[in-house]
Please model this.
Amino acid sequence: MPSSWIHLLGLLALFLCTILSAGDASPFDERRHRGWNPRPGSMPQIPTTPPFNPYG
Model:
């Protein structure tokens, strides 16, 4: 079945891209995910202009 070969090649390419993008660290290292969710429950501060600033 050619579709199974395409799926296997796609998974292999995805795995290689994950390893290469992580660099020397492992793909499942916590340092890689630090930028995505710095602290659970903390909302990122959205910069607003002065007319739309609710705290101003």
Remarks:
- The chain has one helix and no strands.
- The chain has a mean pLDDT of 66.
